[in-house]
Amino acid sequence: MNNLGGEIWQPLQPGLSIFFLDRLHPGLGNKAYKLQPAIERAVTRGSSPLVSLGGAWSNHLHALAQMGQAAGIATVGYVRGDANCPKTKMLEDAEAWGMTLRFLSRGEYRKRHDAGFAQGLMRDYPSGIFVPEGGSDVEGIAGVAQLVADLMAHGPAFERLVLPVGTGGTMAGVLLALKRACHVVGVSALKPVKAQLNLIDSATSGRRHPGVSFEVLPETRFGGYAACPEALVQRIHELEAAFDLALEPIYTAKALVAALDLVQAQSAFSETLVLHTGGLQGRRGFAALA
C-alpha cells in the first residue's frame, strides 16, 4: 500500500522495521486515533467547541484543529505562552483551520493537573467538550485500538514494538489492544517518567494480555524534552540519509536511536518494529532541520 510516495512500513536492517502512521493519516499520525473518539462524540451530540491545551508547537492542538475543521466542529486551544509573542508555524496552521487561540501563562499552565482546572477553562464553553493534554483520557486511549489493528493489518511481523512516549496515552492504548505476546518499549521524550508510568499503569493494570510486557526508557541522551542539541541534529541527518526517511527531534528520532541500540544489543527478540508517530510539521521549529 502506498501513501504520500512511500510505503506504510519499510525494513531498515535485519530484525528492524519502521511503520509510518503519518502515511496512513497525513499530518496527524497517532493523534488521529486518540482524537477521533472526541470528534465522533461532538458530532453525535452536536456539542461544540472541542477545547484543549498545549504548547506553542503542540502536535496535539495542531491535529485537533485539523480534524475539527474536517468534521465541521469548532475548536479552542489554550496555549502555554504569551499572546504578544509571534505565533509559531503550528499555531498559524491551527488558526487557519479555524481554531480560536487563548493563552495561559506558564504559571497558570503548571496548574493543569489541579482539581477544577479544566472546569475553569470550560466556563466560557458550557456546551463544549474538554479534551485533555495529548488526548490521553479514557476515550483517547481506547481509540488507539484502531492503531494496533492497522499495525496488524498493514505492518510486518514483530515481537518487540518501540514507540515514543509523550503523555503515555498512545502506549497505554497499545498495551490494552495487543492480544498476543509482545514486549513494548516506550522511549520517553522526558527525563522523569513517573507521570507516564502512573498513567500507563492506571489505564492498563490487570487488563493487559498475559504475554504483553513493557518498559519506559527515560530521555537521558539528548538533553530532555524539546531539546535538540547538535549531536541529535547530526544523528538525524545520518539516519535520514541511511534509511531515506524523515524524522523529527522530539519523539521519532529518539525512538529510532533507541531501537537501533536495542537491536544491536542482540536480545532475544528477532523482529523489532519502530512506530513513527508523525509530527514532521514540528521540524519547522528547528532551524537546522526546517
Structure description:
The protein is an alpha/beta fold and 290 residues long. The protein folds into two domains: 2-27 and 144-285, Rossmann fold (3-Layer(aba) Sandwich), CATH 3.40.50; 31-138, Rossmann fold. It contains twelve helices and twelve strands. The chain has helices at residues 21-24, 31-45, 59-71, 89-96, 106-109, 117-121, 138-143, 145-154, 169-177, 194-204, 230-243, 252-264; strands at 2-3, 6-7, 9-13, 16-20, 50-54, 75-80, 100-104, 129-130, 160-165, 182-188, 212-217, 272-276. A six-stranded mixed beta sheet has the order 3-4-12-9-10-11, sandwiched between helices. Helix 2 (31-45) crosses helix 3, helix 8 crosses helix 9 (169-177) and helix 9 (169-177) packs parallel to helix 10 (194-204). Residues 1-5 have low confidence and may be disordered.
Topology:
Layout: E1 2-3, E2 6-7, E3 9-13, E4 16-20, H1 21-24, H2 31-45, E5 50-54, H3 59-71, E6 75-80, H4 89-96, E7 100-104, H5 106-109, H6 117-121, E8 129-130, H7 138-143, H8 145-154, E9 160-165, H9 169-177, E10 182-188, H10 194-204, E11 212-217, H11 230-243, H12 252-264, E12 272-276
Parallel strand pairs: 4-12, 5-6, 5-8, 6-7, 9-10, 9-12, 10-11
Antiparallel strand pairs: 1-2, 3-4
Helix pairs in contact: 2-3, 3-4, 8-9, 9-10
Spatial separation of the terminal alpha carbons: 28 Å
Class of the largest domain in CATH?
Alpha Beta
- Give the overall form: globular
Q: Which fold name corresponds to the CATH topology of the largest domain? A: Rossmann fold
Class per helix and strand makeup: alpha/beta
Percent range of helical residues: 25-40%
Q: Quick check: average pLDDT?
A: 95
The unreliable regions are 1-5
Largest sheet: 6 strands, mixed
- Pattern of helices and strands: EEEEHHEHEHEHHEHHEHEHEHHE
